[in-house]
Write the structure tokens for this entry.
Amino acid sequence: MKSYIHLINQGFNNCTSRWWRYGLVLSLICLTAAVIYSNTFDAPFVFDDQHTIQQNAKIRDMRNFYTPDVLRSPRPLVDFTFALNYHFGKLRVFGYHLVNLFIHIANGVLVFFLSRIMFRKLSGADNPNSYLAALFAALIFIAHPLQTQAVTYVAQRYTAMAAFFYLGSVLSYIIARDARFAGKQVACCGFFMVTLTCGLMAFLSKQNSASLPMAILLVEYAIYDQTWQGWKNKIGFILTGVLLCGLFYAYNIGLFRHDIQFGTFLEDVSEAARETKQVSRWHYLCSQFNVISIYIRLLFIPMQQNLDYQYDFKNGFFDGATAYLFVFLVGIFVAAWRNRNKRPVLFVGILWFFITLSVESSIFPIKDALFEHRLYLPMFGFSLIVSYSIFLGLSAHRFWVYGVSVTIVMSLAVATYQRNEIWKNAVFLWSDVVRKAPSNYRGITNLAYALEQDGKTETAISYYDRAIQLKPDYYFALSNKGALLGRMGKADDAIKLLQKALFYKSDYPLALNNLGVALASQKKEKEAIKYFLQAVQYRPGYMDANLNLAVAYANTGEYENAVQQYSNAINIDPDTPILHHRIGVLLHTLQRYAQAIDHYAESIRLDPQNDEVYLSMGNSQLADNRLNDAVDSYEKAVQKNPMFIEAHTNMGVAYMRSGDNKQAEKKFREVLKINSSSVEALANLGAVLYSQGRLNESMQSLVTALKLRPNSEELRANMAKIIQQSQHPQKTEKPPEN
């Protein structure tokens, strides 16, 4: 057995082609990732995916990303990839998951190369085990179940893409430094530019990349220069870099959009460096001593994972075990520092872990203390530590090295695959959250919403009630339950709940929109319009509110305002065919037929199979006296739906207006074969027959129509004209078509 293992190792390290080895590494990384994430491609959008993707108006139009101002928006680079996904696949989840997986694989490859460099440079020689150790580190990074929240959870592409550019920046920096030592100045300058570019891209993906300069300084210290004199000479470069990073950060968050005053500028910076005011910086930091300890436990023992921990903030340094955990973390840091020369890989791994957590787990308050996706980038440090420990600790027993390595990777892979099974269904996912955290009112509310989407309304209501009982002022649960009651026809109860939600959060767009819907269902459109307008004001680009506002305006006869709201909706999402159809109908009502026809044409381009749009286009063309075009449109409508009575009837009217009574008669008789009780077909057939002088047949058709619609004054008037014509043949006035 030992000789067999020796042959495998020797064959791997003495392979004549370096590219063969790299190809094998890439294949193993790709295969591992593809297998363990193979069950995620139909996982639905959940949680933040709703506002990040499903309701994000920005990603629905690529033109939003073609202006310099996009650099001032948060995370524009990842939003651009979401826009590409939407452009090519709309809201089909497969494409979003596929891109996330590709990014994860790319990060695994970067981890391999960085690990390879770390093991080679920090061990002082080209260690023959460095390839296998680096591969093991990369597979830990790929296969660890904690990574699911940054891969399977679509919205956390922000985290994965930021990590890609972050790792790429560090790798480019190392290559640039090596090129400088080798005297390759052009390559050195080129890779320094790549380092800078990747750093900017990382920051434009997610702001936790602000820790990148510290990571680069860690690499510089660990690999290249630990001398005091060397660092003294670098002070100028370091301060310049920090200043430039700070200025770019200030620009990105929009601090230069107004006149700068020193006092208010510092206040603006302070406000920008916090996501929430619900917790002080000190209490957030104390909470993070606990959270980081939980992260460490999850890295080594990834059990009881949860999408939403809803971790409570600590009230101070001596709240719970905070002080002890602080000592524990300081001990880890001290141990790393003391081993910086003896075991530099462990030193780099531990400090990488703390540095890459430093933005989200320090003094910058975030409303959620703990999320697993925040470990995505720190996972590289953990992978280094585990791989180095196993290959160093068991170096004398290669069989055990390979056995333990394979066992760890396979165990992590199985755990990841099983964890991904929970993500395949929103009800399963949120049931898992609630089972592990029964008092998590946010998880309970999301479970209620998932059940509601699954058609289990009564069960959903019971969970909404449970969430409201746990947190009576939770406006999200109040709004969702109110909306559900409104759809169930209980408008009065819905209005009470929605008003209560707005009492706790008056600027909550969903509650404002839902309240408008409830009021509109009671025919109180004027009141509803007020709330729809507020919803659009607080959330520009809120599609549902725009559409509801358009319908409310149309119902109150304010057609111009309705057209404006549909135009706003089309600006948000120009590729939705029903929007073009609806605005076309309104424009037809306003007798703006040419504009209506243009929108119908766009709707048909987007969805050529909708027979209703062909009918509407034909109606506008008929009203605009474009009779041949109208006939063509009606013909296409009946091709899509041969039983489409209204299209057949209106085509007959178009023929009749163009003077082709033969074709008109044929069409009306075709309608009567489909539905012998069609009053419109009978009346129009009577008009055609009358115009041909076939008075008896015309009268017979009109009498049949009048029996079906006895209160029609128009039919009686037409019959009177026929009677008059039969008594006075010299008069030839044609009854109007119906």
Residues 258-269, 730-735 have pLDDT under 50 and may be disordered.
